Amino acid sequence: PEPGRLLPFEKVEVDWSRTRAWGAGGYYGRVFLNVRGREPEGIVEPSDYEALRDELIEKISAIPAADGTPLQTQVFKPQEIYQEVRGIPPDLMIYFDDLRWRSSGSLGHGDIYSFENDTGPDECNHAENGLFILYDPRRPGGGRRVEGAQLMDVAPRVLEMHGVPVPERMQGKSLLG
Fold first, then answer.
1. Which of 74, 113, 136, 147 is deepest in the core (most CB within 10 A)?
2. What pTM does this model have?
């Protein structure tokens, strides 16, 4: 599309015979490879799959900020960070500058940097550290900070609170012990 005319990916004519990879927008970037035998018009040979992922990791990791300074970008292969990958995962997942930048879901910005998201300014950035509040009426008192926890650590604690055994194969450790 011409610069300034934003189009969602689904509205763009793609020449799949020349497309090795494409991205989808969101809080983290998702890159999909056009793999022969997996995609309807795939052109990337399965034997070239890992080499292309490694090449893209190197190139994406080297993208600088709009002012030329380095970004703290992390690029992940989903099966290296998840115990089990279900459905149709992306081939690569990208945290641009520790999620300070998001991946746009539209084309036509005229540049690789956009200071507004697809729907307008976004003043709510996301980060790896979050917030959770757990109320247990059997343990009254003030709250406390929990360091080093992950989202998957909440479920074992909730199961324990309800007297449900935590399955051995469940990832995560109980919060608050």
1. 74
2. 0.69
